[in-house]
Automatic annotation (TrEMBL), chain A:
Family matches, as InterPro entries: ABC_transp_permease, BCAA_transport_permease
Transmembrane intervals: 12-32, 39-56, 62-85, 97-122, 142-163, 184-213, 225-252, 273-296
Name of protein: Amino acid/amide ABC transporter membrane protein 1, HAAT family
Compartments where found: Cell membrane
Gene Ontology CC entries for this record: plasma membrane
Membrane topology classification: Multi-pass membrane protein
Pfam families from the UniProt entry: BPD_transp_2 (PF02653)
Organism ancestry: Bacteria, Pseudomonadati, Pseudomonadota, Alphaproteobacteria, Rhodobacterales
Chief localization: membrane
Family: Belongs to the binding-protein-dependent transport system permease family. LivHM subfamily.
A molecular-function term among this protein's GO annotations: transmembrane transporter activity
GO biological process terms on file: amino acid transport
TrEMBL record, chain B:
InterPro entries noted in UniProt: BCAA_transport, Leu-bd, Peripla_BP_I
Signal peptide: 1-21
Species per Swiss-Prot/TrEMBL record: Roseovarius azorensis
Record flagged with keyword Transmembrane: no
Protein's name according to its UniProt entry: Amino acid/amide ABC transporter substrate-binding protein, HAAT family
Highest taxon, organism lineage: Bacteria
Family as reported in the entry's similarity comment: Belongs to the leucine-binding protein family.
Annotated ranges, domain Leucine-binding protein: 22-352
Keyword Glycoprotein included in the entry's annotation: no
UniProtKB/TrEMBL annotation, chain C:
Keyword set, alphabetical order: ATP-binding, Nucleotide-binding, Transport
Pfam family, one: ABC_tran
Any one GO molecular function term: ATP hydrolysis activity
SMART domains: AAA
Protein name as catalogued: Amino acid/amide ABC transporter ATP-binding protein 1, HAAT family
Keyword Nucleotide-binding applies: yes
CDD domains, sorted: ABC_Mj1267_LivG_branched
Matches recorded under InterPro entries: AAA+_ATPase, ABC_AA/LPS_Transport, ABC_transporter-like_ATP-bd, BCA_ABC_TP_C, P-loop_NTPase
ABC transporter domain span: 6-247
From TrEMBL, chain D:
Coarse class of the protein's main subcellular location: membrane
Name of the protein: Amino acid/amide ABC transporter membrane protein 2, HAAT family
GO CC, any one term: plasma membrane
Organism of derivation: Roseovarius azorensis
Sorted UniProt keywords: Cell membrane, Membrane, Transmembrane, Transmembrane helix
Superkingdom to which the source organism belongs: Bacteria
A GO molecular-function descriptor: branched-chain amino acid transmembrane transporter activity
Keyword rRNA processing annotated: no
The keyword Glycoprotein is assigned to this record: no
Segments traversing the membrane: 38-57, 62-80, 100-119, 126-149, 172-190, 260-285, 297-320
Pfam hit, one: BPD_transp_2
Compartment(s) where it occurs, according to its Swiss-Prot or TrEMBL record: Cell membrane
Topology class, membrane: Multi-pass membrane protein
Amino acid sequence: MSLILFIEQMLNGLQFGVMLFLMAAGLTLIFGVMGLINLAHGSLYMIGAFAAAWVAGLTGSFVLALIAALAAAAAAGALVEVVVIRRLYARDHLDQVLATFALILMFSEGTRWVFGSFPLFLEIPPYLSGPVRLPGGIQYPLYRLAIIVAGLIVAAGLFALIARTRIGIQIRAGEADREMIGALGVNIAALYTVVFALGAALAGLAGALIGAIQSVQVGMGEPVLILAFVVIVIGGIGSIKGALVGALLVGLTDTMGRFLLPVAFAQVMAPAAATAVGSALASMAIYILMALVLIFRPRGLYGVA
Amino acid sequence: MIVRTLAMAGALSLAAVGAQAEIKVGMITTLSGGGAGLGIDVRDGFMLALEQSGRTDVTVVIEDDQQKPDIAVQLSDKMIQSEKVDVMTGIIWSNLAMAVVPGAVAQGKFYLSPNAGPSALAGQGCHPNYFNVAWQNDNLHEAAGAYANDAGYKNSFILAPNYPAGQDALTGYKRFFKGDLAGEIYTQLGQTDYAAEIAQIRASGADSVFFFLPGGMGISFLKQYADSGVGLPVVGPAFSFDQGILQAVGDAALGVVNTSQWSKDIDNPANVAFVASFQEKYGRLPSLYASQGFDTANLLLSALEVAEPSDADAFREALRAADFDSTRGDFAFGANHHPIQDIYVREVIKEGDIYTNKIIGVALKDHVDAYVGECKM
Amino acid sequence: MTEVLLDIRGITKRFGAVTACEEVSLTLRRGEIHALIGPNGAGKSTLIGQIAGSLRPDAGSVWFDGHDVTALDTAARARAGLARTFQISSLAMEMTVLQNAVLGALGARGRVMRFFRDVMRDSALRAVAREALDRVGLWDVAAHRVGDLSHGQRRQLEVAVALTQAPKAFLMDEPMAGLGAEGSARMTRFLDGLRQHAPILLVEHDMDAVFALADRVSVLVYGRVIATGAPDAIRRDARVREAYLGDEALP
Amino acid sequence: MRAETLLNACVLLALAAVPLWAWVADEPFTITLATRLAILALAGVGLNLALGLGGLVSLGHAVFFGIGGYAMGVLASHAQSYTPLTDWPVLIEGTKSMPVIWLVAMGASGLAALAIGALSLRTSGVYFIMITLAFGQMFYYFAISWPAYGGEDGLSIYVRNGFPGLNTLDPIQFFALCYAILALALWAMARLMRSAFGLALVAARQNAARVEAVGIAPYRLRLVAFVLSGMITGLAGALFADLNRFVSPVMFSWQTSGEIIVFVILGGVARLYGPVVGAAVFVLLEHFLGGLSEFWHIWLGAVLLGVVLFARGGIIGLVVGREVRRD
């Protein structure tokens, strides 16, 4: 195994982690502020991807597609918040799990109803396609670099939003004490809708960015959703910082696990068996990581006790 | 969902024809969720053939298995116990077929498989009432291996999801490929990001890539592979290159070679008529799944001309004769009731705005599957 | 058998840079009511947590009935005979009064892992529960849901559940909280009689009650015990008067 | 309380009467549906012990359902092929006998529940939901990639396993068996709810500090509840596998966990018959909505959402009011 390959895999893990952060940030924000566990977050990711594919198909513009993804996911998020989600804040997690599970069913089949059963097409714009040569001779796809950059910009923007702006202050106040911000004269209902739409928009953006290199199809949100939950649980629910650390940890564990475990097992067993056992273990790796973190830190790495 | 139009037409004609028994076909296929595209194609191809036959005494009961084995088993019980169907068909996925087929044929029903062909049902688990009209699962992978030899590849990197069909795929490729393996990877089922695998391909020094990643997994892989600039020739089975998927892959698929027992440009009258009529009726190009559904229905119809399913022995003989005009040209059953057929090599091209496949050669001629010897029937 | 039942030896608890409890030593003798007072933020809750077992001290030890219980959790200390009441009523709100009392009796008796016999028909447990409810005057409402009780009744039920445990000592966190003058007076009379039963470590804000009941008083300020003594001595103690910002607070 | 008892009796009677009618009317598929219902209800009864009484929202009960299923699949497939499971250190043969399979299923799922519970119960709230989900995913991916027992293809058992004195291939007799087990489980649950353990467990859900203060450790209560819950769900898994004569990793999927939760909540959390009513409604919806529209999941979602938002206490709560039993 060469060093170049190893570094390239680390970049892949980083890129995967950044992607997961976009999903996890919205999820953890919504949990931190409203105490809501939202299984339908993956559906917003899917809506972003479908909106992007649809608009890109009509206009041919990737930028317009991204804007459409943000707008569609935010709008869907705001709508769902007003119609359904706000009735769930006072409920226990069980009701929230069930209601948002029901929303997944409705969103998935609704999307299939509108767009049909076949996957949609969304491609990388020409100016971002193809590989670039990095220092050290690593060939790396430009688009994946762009995702890393975009994700880090969003992360920085999110930290700035929470640390510096009025809405950020309200969000932090809301995390600390829900009754308190009402007493301060903040319009809680509006704040919650905005936060939910913001989280939804982040998911939609992730869906559109990833849609260009994956398959835009019904059900694409659920695998990502489960990974995003793993991320925020590892990081500590409600913590944006935890989401970032957790996302990078999961991204790297998953990528490096898939890469290294079969190699490791090949040292002690036949190649065909090693790749089967190694891959089996690799697919369980992040869940093992999560279980380990929770056993030693029952509230995640940055969770509040 | 029962297709009543045919049943009603059948009822009307009953008085004229006399005491002709109605034939009931149970179709369990995937019509909802992510894998619905395949089931819809099989269903549409099957119903098209039925409609063209003009036969009014065949009722088709269609149910959605949601791609879940336990639902498929429940529907199978319903078809057999409640609907009392004569013949069953429709299942797309091998694991669902393994759940349903042994039980159905053990209860004396005929099962015609329009897609899945698990090795267990071709070898030791073969059954006189089970007919596979599509392929044995390994066939297209074996053909890909044969093609790789013809193309002069010496060192292949091969990958597939870590589940039985994926393991069979790599086994099938290796059975025919004579070169070396630069790498062999099992990916996670349902995986959407292949950056780690593509990096390994790039570093492996391979001269070609074989992959089996059905459905959305294939779309993701091809898009990411094209963007990575690795540029090694890719070969795979048709499952990642069917008409429904190609449009979602776009330019990334252009020029990729794949193996299939069917292609829309196979030049025989049955196929030309099928492609034209499918396009006319449904407004889209048929996929190989649609052709398999169409052939399955025509096989059934050809047997019904000769015998009733109630006369099991005669009906079985009629099926075995396979006396119908297949969209694939020559078609015959082997001793284990799996097809003996040519497997073609296709290349992805663009016709106008539509991505589709063009035949560029034959990988295996009159190919018989590897398990026929294990079948004691 | 020692005179001292509960012996707290120099326990210290820090939360980050804040020392909530510094080398606190206290004793509870048989037959006495020992009151613990102190202004808000003095560290009373932290101290109670360490005595009851929900918090581990960073240093020092807790001895109960001649044994070091520092390493035991809350449930084990309860089984050893330390019954606790909470500042804010802590009861199974959806259950009935009687069920809460039976739960207390069950905890004291043990043998919780019984899966088939109807626990509410267990005459021994019922008898214990009934006696406790009778003593606090809640038997009439035994079939009521706790969530439907008044605040005062819940305070009484807290005490009744502690009684069902037949404890060797009580640890009571502000049993008078929110009771009003009449309720406080009734609770004061009740606790007065209870000391024969088992000694009480009483944390209380109600100074009338404290000085009416306590045999000894300890004053906790900024995590330290600044004085321990008889009520009259405490009343005269200059440091205590200072800590309470003037004279008014102490009668 | 009276109304709920009456409703419970009606549900139990209806669940027996419909298949009997179907038997007379020669509608074997209706019997199959009722059997499916009874088995899924049993899985729900298991979860209800942890979730309803203990307040432990497990999104990983598919693990036990799957282990039960695979206990049946593994034992029966070895018996089917006349190969022993292992010949070292002792010879273990497969079996086609249901009682043996049930014991193995309950034992194996109980052990798994002990291990998973011991670790997971260190967390609470959302973390507990997620760690149980994580264990579920581990088992799911393991089952898919482990080739020995069919991997994702699953295992087919050609003939249903046997029970002494019964012809289990006859739908009505197999139904009777499942119905009897469900009734037995409901009876045991009813006893458990009134037992010392039940009292302490429910109290620990409502107020853990109180239970600790009287000298009972909530962790042990919850662990025992989790293990018992896993064992019942595991038994349901073994029966489910026998109903389908087939097991596959889908039994381990998180959607399966979600569906079992749906049974419990749809019927009414912590109600004795909640899972029965919930499973009945789910099976009927699945059966009839599936026939109405290709997009029936939309309507299923709408029904679920309606129940959560507007019928707290589930369907039983809707029928008999929100008051929960007390004495």
